[in-house]
Amino acid sequence: MAIFSVYVVNKAGGLIYQLDRPAPRADAERTFSFPLELVLRPRDERVVVAFGQRDGIRVGHAVLAINGAEVNGRTTADGQDVLEFLGNPANYPVTIRFGRHRLSSNEKLMLASMFHSLFAIGSQLSPELGSSGIEMLETDTFKLHCFQTLTGIKFVVLADPKQTGIDALLRKIYEIYSDFALKNPFYSLEMPIRCELFDQNLKLALEAAEKAGPFGPGS
């Protein structure tokens, strides 16, 4: 899996479409004795690892399950506070599953709005007039690519750093948006995209881009 997700953000900064590609989760499940060797802290309604990476467990990973039961944010399946439960020696040994949490719909909306603001800030900070704003952000595990149309719609693709041809893919997504969303008589501008043909053709475009591989047309 080389292309992870696609976002479409309207000119006001609202998320109007989002697609996550299915990918294997790199969860790590381990059994611990008391005291817990990891330092856990509450963050954004979750309990995450603050210190003590080991055995595939990394700083920032969230507690996903305890003794096989999924946790609900900061509480266990039976309603107990996760940190209080793990702080009680009577509950050990305990099996904990860690991993990256799935973003909620509200978090995706918030992040789309934040990127919209960063895009505008990037444009304003440019020493040259008429800067396009942020076109790419790179980390060690993914690249974020953005293409903004003349009307202010932003198409954002998150992909593996080795994936090429993303510039062409972004323009293909714009073409699909024009053909299957804008020309749909039931679609209203700036509103969430709920068009089956748009979904189908977008997925086909992503599959074609991935088959081109890391040695396809340069991005």
UniProtKB/TrEMBL annotation:
Gene Ontology annotations of biological process type: endoplasmic reticulum to Golgi vesicle-mediated transport
Purpose of the protein: Core component of the TRAPP complexes which has a function of guanine nucleotide exchange factor activity for Rab1 GTPase. Plays a role in vesicular transport from endoplasmic reticulum to Golgi and autophagy. May play a role in dendrite postsynaptic membrane trafficking.
InterPro entries per UniProt: Longin-like_dom_sf, TRAPPC
Cellular component per GO, a single term: Golgi apparatus
The keyword Endoplasmic reticulum appears for this protein: yes
Family: Belongs to the TRAPP small subunits family. TRAPPC4 subfamily.
Subunit structure: Part of the multisubunit transport protein particle (TRAPP) complex.
Coiled-coil ranges per UniProt: none
Alphabetical keyword list: Endoplasmic reticulum, ER-Golgi transport, Golgi apparatus, Transport
Protein name according to UniProt: Trafficking protein particle complex subunit
Domain of life, per lineage: Eukaryota
Subcellular compartments: Endoplasmic reticulum; Golgi apparatus, cis-Golgi network; Golgi apparatus
The keyword Nucleus belongs to this UniProt entry's keyword annotation: no
CDD domains: TRAPPC4_synbindin
SUPFAM superfamilies (alphabetical): SNARE-like
